[in-house]
Amino acid sequence: MRATDGNQSASVMNDDGLERIALDPETGRHTESAHALTGHTHTRIEYDEKGRATAIVDKGENRLTIERDGDGKPLAIIAPGGQRTVLTVNAAGQLTGIANEMGESYRMEYDSSGLLTRFTDPGRQVSEYAYDGMGLLTEAKTPAGGIKRLTRTKTADGTLVTYTDPNNRTTAYETKIIPGGSAADHYRSGRSQNRGDAAGG
Fold first, then answer.
1. pLDDT tens per residue, range 36-56
2. pTM for this structure?
3. Residue 157 φ/ψ region, left for φ over 0, alpha for ψ in the -120 to 50 degree band, beta for the rest
4. Which Pfam families match (predicted)?
5. Least enclosed by CB within 10 Å: which of 45, 51, 145, 186?
6. Among candidates 131, 110, 130, 132, which has minimal Cα distance to 120?
């Protein structure tokens, strides 16, 4: 991402240069997103006096509201049409439950490091996740019992990630830091993509 600074505001451009993300110069909070070429704002984010997000508003002024209790804990998300999705947050601030007006609910469980380990959907189908010592995902078990695996290998100039699907098909994905500090993503199928400045500048 490329950063631009001004006296009253700061912004960054997304990787393809088509979106400008405005930031509060004092807090760094994302305040709005606009089309880089036209300048038209398509998303605006509002915060309370303590810096907690309270609403997301689109270009049509449709407002998605985040309902909070007196301590700031999120209780629900209110859609522009008034539909209310109830949130359950534990003492550690982790989202553990989501329930909509149709009676559908989702449950999440975490390990002691705060990483998601178990996800249960409305049909009571369970997905499970495992991580390495760095907190990076290594395994995802699907409700049907299939296992998806990720292995990471450090190379001389980047990282090679190998993805194995439940049918034991593999895909290799490599990120290399090239001269100038940019990152190039390379799929072993031969496709590659230059992602620009790896440091975000």
1. 889 999 999 999 999 999 999
2. 0.74
3. alpha
4. TEN_YD-shell (PF25023)
5. 145
6. 110
